[in-house]
Every structure is written in structure tokens, then in C-alpha cells.
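This protein record is not my work; I was only asked to verify it. Where you disagree with what is written, explain briefly why. This is what I was given:
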Amino acid sequence: MFARVTLLEIDTLRIDTDTAVHVFESEVLPELRQQPGYAGVLVLATAEGAGTLVSFWDTAEAADASGTTGFYAEVLERYVTIFKSPPGRGRYEVAVAELPASTAT
């Protein structure tokens, strides 16, 4: 399993963190679920606007594909006004994963 990690900062003068997370859940997540090899996502956020998205993928190729298919760039372009600066991104092999059961509503 592989992970794509995106580090970002929300411009909280334009949108609060809770609203940005809701936009991700309602608009981006359904599209993300349609990407080949998608295996899940963690969204980490602070009230101050710092955030980390960790998306999980079956293969390295699937993890990298959103960059080559244009999906990632299209999503960034669509929501560019909510970021303070362009997000950073990297790919990692998942060496250990022990996640708690989700408590999200």
C-alpha cells in the first residue's frame, strides 16, 4: 500500500477550517473514491487552517496517477482560492498502519 501526503494551509480569512473540511467531504471525496486504486483517506486539520491529507492507494502507480491524469491539478485549480499557498505533496510506501475505528459522524 502507498500513501500520497498533501500538506496545505487553508486561508481562514476566506473560509473556516470546518467549512473547508465539509467541502472536501461533499465535493472532492466522492470524486476521489472513483479514482482507480483508491483505498482511503485521512484528513487532519487545525482550527488555524493547517492541514494534512493522507490518501491511501493499492499501488505506487495508482498513488502517482492522479498527478498524471490531471485529477489532482483540476481539484487544486477548482479550490485555489481557499489555500494560503500551493499545497506540497509527496508519496510514501506505508510501512506500518494501525488506525483506530473512525469516530467521525
